[in-house]
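REQUEST FORM: STRUCTURE PREDICTION
Request ID: SP-0412
Submitted by: Lab K.M.
Chain count: 1
Length (residues): 188
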Amino acid sequence: MTPPHGAGKSSFDLIDSDLVLSELRLHPDTVMLDLGCGVGNYTLAAAERIGPAGAIHAFDLWEEGVAALRESVRARGLGQIRADVADLGGQLPLPDESAHVVLMATVLHDLVEAGVGEGALRQTARVLRPGGRLVIIEFEKVDSHPGPPAAIRLSPEEVEALVIPHGFRKEKLLQVGDPLFLISFVLS
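STATUS: Completed
RESULT:
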């Protein structure tokens, strides 16, 4: 299988991880979903804050990344993480209203480019509990490296225009790295 565009590239080392983890508002019983988890840098960092009472579901279409995350989970004894290969634009293998927070870290632009952004946002709204949060990290829409070409990057306004129709309201926009922003939404 051909890996998805952007596979193997993580923005984790480019962000203020303490700020991002704080914005996720993780608690010991949080159920989190990491869409486009790759090798799990965000997932593994979140697991430290959630602890064994919560759960993290990490999904990606990139089989090698999911396998690497599973190995990290085994090596660290992190039983609260479930990593699976999944088509993010298709039916996610989770029940309705089962997650407190969904993270999409530098993946929405790839989903939009692949034509599955709407499906991923629809699934996100389905699996989030009412009042649940969607946290999106994206590259600013400028030519810079690292990151995707400016032509496929999404501005905060474009992210908002994509997300709001799915029952969300914008909560916060902030800078989390150069050139990265975080925008959070609450499911109404």
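NOTES: The helical segments are 17-24, 41-50, 63-76, 108-113, 117-127, 156-163.
Reviewed by: T.R.
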